[in-house]
Recover the amino acids of this structure.
């Protein structure tokens, strides 16, 4: 059996862990730079605050209902997510971290009363971490997703749903629209409608060979999975990213070129760091720069530049990025956001140059390694390119950040004695 | 913290160190104080109501959420929405302070007491940090 554990309103729940006064109350968490609402507690959802609403649009609603507002506190969320993972490993060693708030657990070969077992997992995560979760249990990933969805949607399930027999999953499939099946997007839903497939059950009963020929091989796999035959294994090691983006809004609108260049330098440095962590080199870089779409004269431009040779050298990448950003810049615009994307990435092992096209020098690689090691040991930002600027006025606005309760000594929760 | 026991050094030639056969891992304070890291959080004591048990203002509390609270345990509870440290008196259904200036807090029938964790240990600093 496979278990899918999904943290409820993950970031908002993290903010409630050391604030019992906020439990059962509306809480929202804002994105980087306090731009959008990215997490809402159940109570905040009931107030009609939508996902990804711009903060400025719902601000009055939040104030009126005295909603607790938080900026994203990634050190806290990362630590809590790690605790959830560690706790899950007590139930079975094979865990796939699907995202910061979703994990698959492989319990192959185990025989349990799965509803009970799911409840045990859920209770343990609440007691030990104070993280509320939904638990879906089924023989395949696609069914586990379906089970997890039911665990949340159906009040009677109370957060746990085991679809461990064909009768149970077919019952659920009859009540599930096909576009709610994992991996079935909007376009595919339309195509499936042509075959008269409306529900997950219709899809499960469809002929996989025919649909494979008419659509693609993935649909065949989905059909098998819906019938309890696992086709998708656990990915315990996440595959190397094929693209690395670092994009962010500035803390304030910028009209001058120089702070924009500084910000772009920081984004490029971050992306290069991630590139080195996954042992890759980049061949082409995507850049963009734009003003606010909510303001008149919206201006947005992007460019793609090639590196001379595959590289992971921050200095080389930054130089290219700065040149390109300077090209995209236009005086008089109030720029809101810039982004750097490393879009063509190859494994480092393939990056060797030859006599005629020399690759990155050994020294450059060593310099970068030394820089990464220093930053790892003494904290991010210990060593950085001067081009980032020292006083970062364009830095993210994070007006409502909670303490890093579990990762900083000065931020430990206070207990009244 | 690492308190180093005997460490054998690699001796290229000559008489091997007799300590090499008795090498053990260094002692870790984490291991001593924390049995379930994922369920443990640290907190700062704030106040004087637990002085009688040697928990003073600014002491470090090691709180384990996985332990089942028992009578007489020092626990952290959510009291009026605030994290509060008290002694659990299960027999009489109350929360006790360890300081005569503070009266016991009764837990009424039907009132839900949320224990946030059991205080396994507290750390007292004898030199201002």
């Amino acid at each position: 059996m496979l278990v899918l554990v999904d943290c409820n309103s993950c970031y908002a729940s993290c903010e409630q862990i050391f604030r019992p006064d906020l439990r059962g109350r509306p809480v929202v968490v804002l994105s980087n730079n306090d731009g959008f609402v990215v997490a809402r507690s159940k109570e905040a959802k009931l107030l009609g605050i939508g996902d990804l609403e711009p903060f400025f649009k719902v601000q009055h609603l939040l104030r009126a209902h005295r909603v607790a507002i938080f900026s994203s506190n990634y050190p806290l969320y990362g630590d809590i997510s790690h605790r959830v993972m560690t706790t899950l490993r007590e139930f079975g060693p094979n865990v796939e971290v699907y995202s910061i708030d979703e994990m698959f657990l492989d319990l192959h070969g185990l025989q349990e009363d799965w509803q009970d077992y799911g409840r045990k997992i859920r209770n343990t995560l609440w007691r030990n971490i104070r993280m509320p979760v939904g638990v879906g249990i089924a023989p395949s990933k696609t069914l586990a997703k379906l089970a997890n969805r039911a665990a949340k949607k159906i009040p009677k399930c109370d957060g746990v749903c085991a679809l461990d027999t064909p009768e149970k999953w077919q019952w659920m499939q009859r009540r599930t629209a096909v576009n709610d099946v994992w991996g079935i997007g909007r376009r595919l839903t339309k195509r499936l409608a042509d075959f008269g497939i409306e529900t997950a059950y219709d899809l499960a009963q469809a002929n996989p060979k025919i649909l494979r020929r008419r659509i693609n091989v993935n649909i065949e796999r989905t059909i098998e999975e819906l019938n309890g035959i696992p086709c998708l294994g656990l990915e315990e090691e996440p595959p190397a990213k094929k693209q690395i983006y670092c994009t962010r809004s500035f803390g304030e609108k910028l009209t001058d070129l120089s702070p924009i260049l500084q910000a772009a330098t920081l984004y490029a440095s971050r992306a290069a760091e991630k590139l080195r962590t996954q042992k890759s080199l980049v061949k082409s870089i995507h850049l963009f720069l734009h003003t606010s779409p909510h303001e008149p004269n919206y201006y947005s431009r992007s460019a793609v530049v090639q590196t001379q040779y595959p590289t992971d050298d921050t200095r080389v990448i930054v130089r290219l990025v700065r040149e390109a950003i300077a090209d995209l810049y236009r005086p008089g615009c109030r720029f809101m956001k810039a982004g750097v994307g490393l879009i063509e990435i190859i494994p480092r092992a393939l990056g060797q140059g030859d006599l005629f096209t020399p690759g990155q020098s050994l020294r450059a690689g060593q310099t970068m390694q030394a820089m990464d090691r220093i930053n790892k040991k003494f904290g991010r930002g210990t060593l950085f390119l001067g081009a980032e600027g020292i006083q970062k006025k364009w830095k993210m606005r994070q007006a409502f950040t909670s303490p890093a309760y579990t990762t900083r000594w000065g931020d430990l929760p206070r207990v009244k004695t | 913290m690492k308190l180093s026991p005997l460490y054998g050094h690699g001796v290229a030639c000559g008489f091997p160190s007799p300590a090499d056969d008795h090498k053990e891992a260094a002692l870790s304070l984490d291991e001593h104080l924390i049995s379930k890291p994922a369920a443990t959080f640290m907190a700062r004591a704030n106040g004087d109501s637990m002085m009688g048990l040697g928990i003073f203002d600014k002491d470090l509390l090691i709180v384990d959420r996985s332990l089942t609270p028992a009578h007489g345990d020092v626990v952290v509870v959510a009291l009026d929405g605030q994290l509060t440290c008290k002694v659990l008196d299960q027999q009489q259904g109350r929360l006790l302070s360890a300081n005569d200036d503070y009266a016991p807090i009764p837990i009424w029938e039907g009132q839900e007491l949320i224990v946030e964790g059991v205080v396994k240990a507290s750390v007292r600093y004898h030199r201002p940090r």
